[in-house]
Amino acid sequence: MGLLDFRKSTFKHGVHPPEHKEETNGRPIRQFPFAPLIILPMAQHIGAPSQIVVREGQEVVRGQLLAKAGGYVSVPLHAPISGTVRKIANVPTISGKMSPGIYLEAFPASSQEVLEGTPVDVDTATPEEILKGIQDAGIVGLGGAAFPTHVKLKVPEGKTCDILMINGIECEPYLTTDHRVMLEQADDIFTGIRYLLRSTGAGRAIIGIEANKQDAADHLEKMIPEGMPVSVKVVPVKYPQGSEKMLITSVLGREVPSGGLPIEVGVVVVNVATTAEIGRLLPHGRGIQERVVTITGPAVRKKGNYLIPVGTPLRYVLEQVGVDENISEVYMGGPMMGVAVSNLDISITKGTSGIVAFTEKDVKRADKVYPCIKCGACVDACPLSLNPSKLGILAKFEAYDQMAEEFHLMDCFECGSCSYVCPSHIPLVQYFRLSKSIVRKRNAAKQTNGNAK
Amino acid sequence: MLNRTLNISTSPHITRGIGTDDIMQNVVWALLPTAIFAVYSFGMSALLVLVTSTAACVLTEHFLCRLSKKESTISDWSAVITGLLLGLTLPPNFPLWMAFCGGVIAIALGKSIFGGLGYNVFNPALVGRAVLQAAFPVAITTWFPAFPDNRFFTVSSSTFAAPFMEPTVDAVTGATPLSAFKFDHVVTPTSELALGLITGSTGETCAVLILLGGLYLVARNMMNWRIPVAILATVYVLSGLLHLVDSQAYPPPLFMLFSGGLMLGAVFMATDMVASPITPLGVVIYGFIIGLLVVVIRIWGGLPEGVMYAILLANAISPHIDNWIQPRVYGTSKSAKGI
User: Which one of A142, A213, A271, B284 is separated from A288 by 20 to 30 angstroms, measured CA to CA?
Assistant: First the structure.
């Protein structure tokens, strides 16, 4: 952040959707009431589902292990509340698929004391012990991806990590969870950074923050512990800067190779709320029980940032905050990449960073899809410099192989900037999601055929 | 209250809120000052030409949509642009029946035959004009002088010429600055060119208003500014070099920029989104080709003006430019599909 830093610290292209963050960014995090019945799907992270270790009718204490990791790319699940395992059955999830899960009934008058496990000492633990501690705490990326954090932190053989990037960008409109976490949980964040520096072997950490959260940047800068190799970097506001690749380019000017991970350029990126969670849980050997969720949007009455137990049903959440009677759409995550909810009986999971609700009049649905007029707005928006116009035309012709081989379809991370700007209202990113899944299936089929021969 | 059925849709759930019809409408607004000035300087005849060509385009589009049993697409406003642009490239005293034919051809052969908006290879208005130029070479190169007396109440004698009859030509016709230079070596002062105190086709005379319309569209992010800049820069530099070599034989560069249909073509015709390349480098190459062709045709060609053919040729090359030039994809060392 020196005066001599002339390089424009942002990535190429991107879009500027209206932020709507002022509606909740001044509201401190508040504890949400405990729901009488919570629903815990075992598949609430990327990877293998957790495996249930309790039985129906068993009484569990808050923080007790309910399910163990189902493999390396998986995490355990802890009881978010003290109560009774009412039922073990398939439960609905956001994707529309059912997942094995647990219905947990809260003890009506429990103190909700938390059970603690084996602490991980930051000064004596080995990197492997820290990674194990992070997995045991059930930690996944809280920014929305819900990818198991210990997998991401594992620096592959032969690679080194020189910079630990803490992601405090939060570029999705409406969401303010990371903003509040940075303002209110600075100590946890820095404790988390100590664990992360130790486990990755990185020489220093940079906290990347967008300019619309200057107060958080100033606060963290002030709170940096004596002698800790951490700096704060403020970058201009632009969507989708919170994507790992864009953040690395904005802050460091490095470009992650196509198809590669950030470690290829010596960087590991961790979300700031995830970092705070690590700093809070590991010293006590606890598991993750709750997370901060922004509940906002024009259809929500009591907008705010709430600390909500994992598994709290969405219906209960909306009943507590109150919604407009004309509520018509509910998104989990922000409006750019979030998923529209069809069923209010799904629950808050570890990856739920926000709930945004719109009424009918807030939704500007394209009444008409025009042909592509080659205006190039999508080309100017795509943060990866793909050619969405061409990809969209090829998708219509079902030329999926050409899309992947000549036009880098598989690099698309579905930020939705192309659809956002398209004047012809062509659902480009949806085309690409479908095309990507078809290419993935074809590749998998090719592989099985190859193995069979 | 929570028993309502929720709508589901795929992300993103918000859009920028600018539609294709908004863009087209704004292009029409941007053309209005030029059209109003045309009526001011050439009077009733110019107004009739503009109304006729626009009506022809809109009616043809509507009729052809009906014929192919599709919903009419006139509400996207693109036919209005084609009609206005065609009218602006015609002489103010152009016979109306010819202007009407031009409008029908522009939409039918320039646009609908390729599949309508988004699929046309060439700028439809220029297709219409090219056919008119081939069919009626005399009428399309006969201009009456700007600011004639009583222009708002009388029309040129050729305006209402009956179809397929030799139109009676006005006694007084004006030479455009380009033909004056080409054939008599007279250089019109740049200030007169910029302010539109000259004769020419209805909409090509006032460079200042054309630029103003272009700036409006650029400010609203509805026009690719690189295209006019590349064209005008190429024309300026190439003709400037020639002028340095021989200032008698070759016109001064500013004269080249402000005369003829170059401004109108560079700002409103070459920027047809559908018929121009999509990548930043691609449009610069496209603009360079247009600029080069304009200079070559104007200086060494048999015609005084070459903007129309320059743009049409570049339109034809544009899909190939898009095939060759792809943006360099993030995280790759070369473009997805190298040159």
Answer: A213
